[in-house]
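Run: sequence + 4-(N,N-dimethylamino)cinnamoyl-COA -> complex structure.
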Amino acid sequence: MSETSTPELIQVSTQGRVGIVTLNRPKQLNALNDQLMDELGAALKAFDADDNIGCIVITGSEKAFAAGADISAMAKYNFHEVYKGDYITRNWETIRSIRKPVIAAVAGFALGGGCELAMMCDFIIAADNAKFGQPEIKIGIIPGAGGTQRLPRAVGKAKAMDMVLTGRMMDATEAERAGLVSRVVPLNQLMDETQGAALMICEYSLLSVMAAKESVNRAFEGSLSDGVMFERRLFHALFATADQKEGMDAFLNKRKASFSHS
Ligand code: DAK
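>> structure
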């Protein structure tokens, strides 16, 4: 399927240098279908390529971030169709290629593919009504977009097994305690808090922000010594940037840094 040019199932907006994608399939609790994932991927790629954007936020509604992949679309497939067609892999992997920071602002349900989408973001800020879960076991499948891999990395094996095998939901308090989300805020402050974090990130050098993201992500691939070496090389490389000179000069001269992202 080709990328849609006029998004219908998402809304795209900006606030300063923050790009915001709002999932918008309210009647289906933002269940994620092919069209929505195409639109989301296209919006993320456009923000990533836009020099005026420094950070991206993905959010949903107050009731649901996303209640999972669209079960009505999935129900009819057979093994040979999903295997041969690499079912829903194509447009679920786009977010992994985004190099600018992506924050998930989660209210309400983040279940199945919705929880997996949130975990693909760089960090999650949750409203106090958020509920996370991997309930695929209840419909005869298992998580298919990284849930069995990212959830244990975030919350450890015991809780991940509990979630994946029982299909139960975790509330925001438990999710924060377990390390799945970075902050929990009252529902009515979710977007202000998230935009505040995103705007803060936008004030920093985009080069060091991108390097920081790349380096932290490296912690989840390969050995510690490889990761530390990767970090060291990026750390060294940042001394070639104008922003390193600006940032350190600003500190020494007790003024606010003004980064040029170069
Ligand atoms: N798909 C389709 N429709 C959904 C849906 C979903 N996941 N979740 C909710 N809806 C629809 C409901 O069918 C209902 O539609 P109508 O009956 O009004 O037409 C409407 O949204 C409102 O839902 P409810 O009436 O059920 O609302 P409640 O408040 O009573 O319950 C709920 C909310 C979220 C607890 C409940 O709707 C629920 O349990 N939803 C299903 C949650 C679920 O099982 N999610 C996991 C789906 S499997 C992969 C990528 C991704 C995936 C796999 C592979 N690859 C890259 C290979 C992901 C798989 C999944 O997510």
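>> summary
Residues 28-29, 31, 67-72, 87-89, 92, 109, 111-113, 135-136, 139, 144-145 surround 4-(N,N-dimethylamino)cinnamoyl-COA (CB under 6 Å). The mean pLDDT is 95.
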